[in-house]
Design brief:
Blueprint lengths: L1 H46 L6 E7 L6 H14 L11 E7 L6 H17 L2 E6 L1 H9 L6 H4 L8 E2 L4 E3 L4 H4 L2 H7 L5 E4 L11 H19 L5
Parallel strand pairs: 1-2, 1-3
Antiparallel strand pairs: 3-6, 4-5, 5-6
Helix pairs in contact: 2-7
Length: about 230
């Protein structure tokens, strides 16, 4: 009986210690917990920041897009793009998606779903395509009317009723020999995801991505690199 009483006494003593600690140090404990949480959030934000400044879809008919084409686009567009996340570097991620109907229907369905999901989410606001991809985007009313976005360039190299900009014979195309080596004289189109009047206008994430994409396309059309 004595041992049982002693164990209960110890438990009561422990409970009193805990209650006393909380009574005397409650404020310090709360402040300390908040401070630790704040530091953890700041650490996560600074170390887990997305290193990519812009996600770009390169939509083609065939999956046979050679590395030199993607490399040429990435290299040159990096010179015209802005450093969105402020890390001192410009990082573009260009992803090729093929949608030709002669290929496996399951893959094509998944690829088309991926394109529309990326555009709707606001993660991707800048698109590049060959004729086949440009027609798909035009039929889906996925891109902005560039005559409204850039009235100063109205009808200048615009195609698909003003929704896509064709680089053919532009100063931008002529200035970079790597384009001719990779693409020859193939028309390549650039466009912006439809933005005005869409739900994307209500989110800061999409607004920022659209602004960066718009600035890039403006730099390309005017062949002006950012300072």
């Amino acid at each position: 009986m004595t041992k049982k009483i002693e164990r209960e006494a110890d438990r009561y003593s422990h409970d009193k210690w805990y209650e006393n600690f909380w009574y005397h140090y409650k404020f310090h404990t709360i402040v300390g917990a908040v401070l630790i949480l704040f530091i953890a959030i700041m650490f996560y934000s600074s170390n887990m920041r997305d290193p990519v400044d812009m996600y770009i879809l390169f939509i083609t008919e065939s999956p046979e897009v050679y590395t030199e084409k993607e490399d040429a686009l990435t290299k040159v567009l990096t010179e015209y793009a802005a450093d969105k996340n402020g890390d001192g570097e410009v990082n573009l991620y260009i992803q090729n998606i093929y949608i030709g109907e002669e290929f496996d229907s399951t893959n094509i369905y998944q690829n088309k779903s991926f394109i529309m999901t990326s555009l709707r989410s606001g993660d991707c606001m800048f698109v590049i395509s060959e004729d086949y991809g440009a027609q798909y985007l035009f039929d889906g009313e996925a891109c902005s009317n560039l005559t409204s976005v850039f009235p100063e360039y109205a009808d200048e190299n615009l195609a698909y009723e003003g929704t896509m900009w064709n680089w053919s014979d532009s100063d931008f195309w002529k200035e970079h020999s790597e384009f001719y080596k990779a693409f020859g004289e193939m028309p390549i189109y650039f466009g912006l995801r439809a933005f005005e009047g869409t739900i994307a206008e209500t989110t800061d994430h999409a607004k920022e991505n659209y602004k960066v994409a718009k600035d890039l396309l403006n730099a390309i059309i005017s062949n002006t690199k950012p300072e």
